[in-house]
Amino acid sequence: MPRTSRRLLAFDRRLGARFVAGADEAGRGSLAGPLVAAGVLLDYERVRGPVAARLSLLNDSKQLSEPEREHLFGVVLRCATRVVVQSVPPSEIDRVGLHRSNLRALARSLAALAPPAEACLVDGFRLGPSAPPHRHVVDGDERSAAIAAASIVAKVVRDHAMRRFDALYPRFGFASHVGYLTPAHSEAVRRLGPSDIHRLSFRARCYAGSAEDASDAAPAVPAAAA
Question: Count of CB atoms within 10 A of residue 224's CB?
Fold first, then answer.
């Protein structure tokens, strides 16, 4: 088994729990499309032998190619005890705020897992007292198998959704940039105006039709206050 997956599985096993849940999101920094959060519950009495071997390529989704993510997506669905996905539409992100939407989606992902996890891990965020008891893990998708599995599920589910949106809005190129701000995406927004799935609460120069390159987008409200 590759060293990375051994390390990820060992991190979770050291918690001494049978049921370990991980939660992560995809699309937080995207200008268009939903925010997708996923929760994955692993039963460490089952994740051994052949099951652990099937997870041998497990890694942070950002470190994987698209074919590797697609393969591991199927593996996670077969090996996990339960997988939950929460999708937050752009209209809710605009209304509630990005940070608050993100925390709510992660909390709902953990709360929907059954049987209840003995240990809940979240990539980077403290979700607040209304969420199931959890531990926030900095760079968790690089440290925990459950979080890495959730990062893959969230990323693949969101990419699939953005490809479907590409069929509805073919002139924006969503199939290639999946909603993130690229020069081509920025130019399309300047030329066409934002679509129904763009996050209008983000400060993006392309919304104003500026000729300057919109190199980044940020929530209109600081993340900590959103």
Answer: 6
Is residue 211 predicted with pLDDT exceeding 70?
no
d(C-alpha 188, C-alpha 31), whole Å: 12
Alpha helices in the chain (DSSP H): 3-13, 50-54, 66-79, 90-96, 98-111, 145-168, 174-177, 183-192
Q: Are strands 19-26 and 119-123 parallel, antiparallel or unpaired?
A: parallel
Q: What single-letter amino acid sits at 114?
A: A
For 97-148, the pLDDT digits (tens) are 999 999 999 999 999 998 889 999 999 999 999 999 999 999 999 999 999 9
Q: Residues 216, 221, 223, 226: what is their CA dihedral angle, to the nearest 10 degrees?
A: -140
> Among all chains, which residue has been given the structure tokens 């120069």?
205
Residue 141 tokens, joined: 């998708």
Distances in Å between the Cα of 93 and the Cα atoms of 26, 77, 130, 166, 207 are 14, 28, 20, 20, 17
Residue 65, phi then psi, degrees to nearest 5 = -75, 165
The CB-side HSE value for 154 (13 A sphere, CA atoms) comes to: 32
Give the 3-state secondary structure of 27-55.
CCCCCECCEEEEEEEEECCCCCCHHHHHC
- Around Cβ 75, how many Cβ atoms within 10 Å? 17
